[in-house]
Structures are given as C-alpha cells and as structure tokens.
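@channel sequence for tomorrow's demo:
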Amino acid sequence: MHYSVNNIQLNVIELGNGPLTLVFLHYFGGSALEWTNVMNQLANQYRCVAVDLRGHGDSAAPPGDYSVNTMADDIMALLILLGIDTFVLIGHSMGGKVALAVASRQPTRLQNLLLLSPSPPVPEPIADADRQNLLETHGQRSAAEKTFTQITSVPLPERAKQQIITDNLRSDQIAWRSWLTVGSKEDISSQVIAISVPVAILAGTADTAIPTHVHTTLTKPYLRTATLDFVAGVGHLLPWEAPDNVTAFIRKQLTVHTKE
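structure tokens (generated this afternoon):
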C-alpha cells in the first residue's frame, strides 16, 4: 500500500491488529520485506507496520534530501497519516539510525525503541575503500551477490537470498549514494541524548558490517539506559537470519517495558 507523506510516496506493509503498533524500519539496501517472518509471528497480537524508506523497495525516489532527519520526517508524517497512537519503533541498521532520530523527537505515545545492529548516531566507521567500492559497483548483480555473502552468516533459503539481492539492486542510485556519502556520516549524537523511552539493542556476533565493538563504543554510550544483547553466530541481517530470535527479543522487551 502506498501513502503520500512529506511530498513522497512511501510503500507500507501492514499486518495484524491490536492496541499497540509495531513500526519496522529496514537496513540500507533492503526493504520492508525483511520483516515478513517476524511480522507473521507478531500479527496475532499487534498491528505491524513495515515501511520502505525513501529510495528503497517500492517507495518513490525523488531527487533531493536523503538525510537521516528527512527520513525521520517521513516516518513522523506517516505516523500521523495512519493514525498510529501507542507504538514501538524497531529499526535495523540504517533504519536504526533513522529510528534514533525519530525517538529523539520524543513523539507522544512512543513506548520502546528497539534497535537491531543499528548504524551508530555518530559517523559509521566504513573503510574508505569499502565505501568507494559500494559506490562504484551498485547495480551490478555480482556485487550484490558478494554483499549478500559478506553480510550474512547463517545459510538462507534460495528464495530469501534472491529477495535480498533483488532489494539491493532495486535500491535507487540517489538513495544509495546519499547514505554512503551523507547519511552514514551524519552525527546525530546530540539529538539522541533526548531519548527517554527504554532502549534495547540486539546484534549478531558474526556481523562484519557493523561489528560488536561499534555497538559498545559508538552507540550504547549515547543511550544511557540501553541494554545490549547478542545472537551467537548470526550476521548483519538478523530479521532474515534469525527471525525467531528477533521475535523473542521483541516480545521480551514489550513484556518488560510496555504498558498497552
């Protein structure tokens, strides 16, 4: 389903219903489809809303601003349009940094902030050579296949593998370049100090895209009350690689902190 907000058409996948809404934001080069297995397990209790961020998946890719705060503006506008009241924000990787920006605005009725291997609020430490290679090879299937191998650790069904590669290839060039040259380098650490809701982080121990030390040194110190947990042997794509662990993590955090 497409919704027009903030002068852009955003694709949204909605599933389930309940008094509490779970809002899911995906990783760089991914799409809302990464949350399918997780949403299927939660939809009997919660309203699940997964968003294709601008320039990704089936959302539009207009020219212009793709900064973290502009993507946060998109989400804030979508919350209003969809009449989302009490909600939990769940962000993965790039979507985690966008979720941090949204939560820093202290939206009314935000209950929890859950982050899966998030890009840190300070510039993400991507090696210059890796950054340049990603810029130069985007759109090449061989590069997308190589990226798949690098960012996953758990064997996945062929159908999932092909979807991950397809999402990489269909990410718009403007969005791709903007994240690598602008968004991933942004410093929003002064904003996230304002976050007052409970924050929990989950990451894979085999993640080479955003290694464990990034969470301990570049993210958690800016989130004073955040907890940090790991899934052994899992790479960067937690919702694809370990949906059951992600679902259990979400349920645990909601049980502990959320008042529906």
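heads up for whoever presents: Residues 2-257 form a domain with the Rossmann fold fold (CATH 3.40.50.1820).
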